């Protein structure tokens, strides 16, 4: 009896130990981490380099135009304009370099009074053929005074696309002359056209712009 009891007890102990060892073994196996497979990197394509572009050259600044006071009437207009006036049988009658010089004028013109010159083209004895062109240098004081005088005399201001100022009177065909005055920062250009009215006024604007172009070296 004792032997059988001991045998059964020993069998239970062995079974218990075996079960415990099995549990420990399984626990140990379960605790081991499973290594994940290394991810396969997707193939990458390098971006294609952009074609090199040469920088655009900086535009060259336009040369600054400087006013140069003409010395006589033969050099205040472009050559083509002088030829056009001569083709109309207009002669350079008054002003420096003309037929009669400054003796043509009884009194000095406003432009002459500030150091400028005045020039007359026309046909002798034909009053309505006469045009009077003037160029004068201006400083801050004479510029301000000239503008005040033109406004006081009733000249109408005209819009310009640049910093210059313009004052004029259209006049009337066969009556008052067309007059146009162009004022820049340092010069005064004007034309009196004995042919008044719109046609005479438009011609005065055109020739005054040419006076300006020659004096600033933009026209020849």
From TrEMBL:
UniProt keyword Signal, yes or no: yes
Region ranges (Disordered): 40-63
Compositionally skewed regions (Acidic residues) per UniProt: 51-63
Taxonomy, superkingdom: Bacteria
Keywords: Signal
Stretch forming the signal peptide: 1-30
Protein name: Lipoprotein
Species assigned in the record: Microcella alkaliphila
Top-level taxonomy: Bacteria, Bacillati, Actinomycetota, Actinomycetes, Micrococcales
């Amino acid at each position: 009896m004792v032997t059988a009891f001991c045998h059964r007890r020993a069998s239970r102990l062995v079974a218990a130990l075996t079960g415990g060892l099995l549990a420990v073994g399984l626990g140990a196996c379960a605790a081991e981490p499973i290594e994940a497979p290394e991810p396969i990197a997707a193939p990458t394509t390098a971006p294609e380099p952009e074609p090199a572009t040469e920088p655009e050259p900086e535009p060259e600044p336009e040369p600054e135009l400087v006013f140069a006071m003409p010395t006589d009437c033969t050099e205040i207009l472009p050559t083509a304009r002088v030829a056009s006036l001569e083709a109309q049988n207009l002669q350079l009658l008054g002003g420096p370099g003309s037929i009669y010089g400054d003796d043509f004028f009884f009194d000095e013109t406003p432009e002459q009074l500030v150091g400028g010159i005045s020039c007359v083209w026309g046909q002798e004895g034909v009053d309505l053929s006469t045009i009077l062109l003037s160029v004068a240098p201006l400083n801050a004081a004479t510029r301000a005074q000239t503008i005040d005088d033109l406004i006081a005399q009733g000249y109408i201001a005209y819009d310009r696309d640049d910093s210059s100022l313009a004052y004029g009177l259209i006049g009337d065909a066969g009556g008052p002359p067309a007059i146009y005055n162009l004022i820049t920062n340092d010069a005064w250009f004007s034309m009196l056209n004995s042919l008044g009215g719109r046609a005479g006024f438009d011609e005065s604007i055109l020739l005054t712009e040419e006076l300006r172009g020659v004096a600033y070296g933009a026209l020849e």
